[in-house]
Amino acid sequence: MALRSIVTIPDPVLRRKARKVTEFGPELQNLLDDMVDTMREAPGVGLAAPQVGIPIRAVVVEFGDEEDESVPPKLFVVVNPEISRNSQDTVTGAEGCLSIPGYAGDVDRFTGVTIRGLNRHGQPVRIKAEGWLARIFQHEIDHLEGVLFTDRAERVWKIEDEPNTPVPLD
Ligand code: ZN
Question: Which CATH number, 2.40.50.140, 3.30.590.20, 3.30.950.10, 3.90.45.10, labels domain 12-158?
Answer without folding.
Answer: 3.90.45.10
